Amino acid sequence: MKNAIHLLPVPALIGLLLCFSGCLKKSETPLRPVFETQSLDSCLAIGIDLSGSFADDLTKRAYPLILGMMADFTDQSFGGDCKIVLSQMSGNDDVLLFEGTPEELRHRFRSPEEMSGFLKAHSKPDRSPVYVATRTTIDYINAMPDVAADTKVVTVLLSDMRDSESNLPTKSKEGYRMIDSLTHYRERGGNLALYFVANDEVSRWKTILERSGFEPGQFVINNALVTSPELPRF
Predict the structure, then answer these.
(1) Each residue of 138-165: pLDDT tens digit?
(2) What DSSP letter does each residue of the chain carry, written as one string?
(3) pLDDT tier, 99 (very low <50, low <70, confident <90, very high otherwise)
(4) What fold does the segment set 42-222 form as a domain?
(5) How much is the mean pLDDT over the chain?
(6) Is the overall model pTM greater than 0.85, yes or no?
(7) For the chain, what are the domain ranges?
């Protein structure tokens, strides 16, 4: 096999390498740094459901909600190095939307209109792949190189938490993959808050979080979307 490769002309070798590089699947996980990074004191991830009939309501209310949760979270964390991650749940396969400091988020979105326009531009409201989007967000947090064992981490999901997948075997498979990610997330000390959860989904999600290892006080489930959501306390 080694001799056969040496006999290939240079253009063929280049074409082979291009073929291999083109077959690599795009990853949404953070790139691992070559050298050590400074660990964060805290990290707040916020996932917003941009599908269904309440998508417009959420995009309009997102700005004060996010700024309010960010202020509450940084107060709990007593300052320090903090990152904010924004993600979305809809038919758009690009789940992750933003990663940066609270100051960078305020600079990026200077008004409710800017944030609302940004969220709408990145949404496809025809689907709500809750299990896949939740797993993708959680996996992203789990893989962040600056999230260490002592980093205070909270993920907030603003969604009715109804998965739109109609194929039951696929839905079940994605659900169990999500539980695996949530289990790893909880083992690393992550906390979770779910708001605007549909009444008929509350029981299911309590079971999901229990199976993922969450104890009372490490998660919040609420079927209302209040002005100042309560975050899990460290």
Answers:
(1) 999 999 999 998 999 999 999 999 999 9
(2) -HHHHHTS-HHHHHHHHHHHHHTSPP--SPPPPSS--PPPSEEEEEEEE--STTHHHHHHHHHHHHHHHHHHHHHHHTSSSEEEEEEEESS-S--EEEEE-HHHHHHH--SHHHHHHHHHHT--TT---HHHHHHHHHHHHHH-TT--TT-EEEEEEES--------HHHHHHHHHHHHHHHHHHHHTT-EEEEES--HHHHHHHHHHHHHTTPPTTSEEEESS--SSPPPPP-
(3) very high
(4) Rossmann fold (3.40.50)
(5) 82
(6) no
(7) 42-222
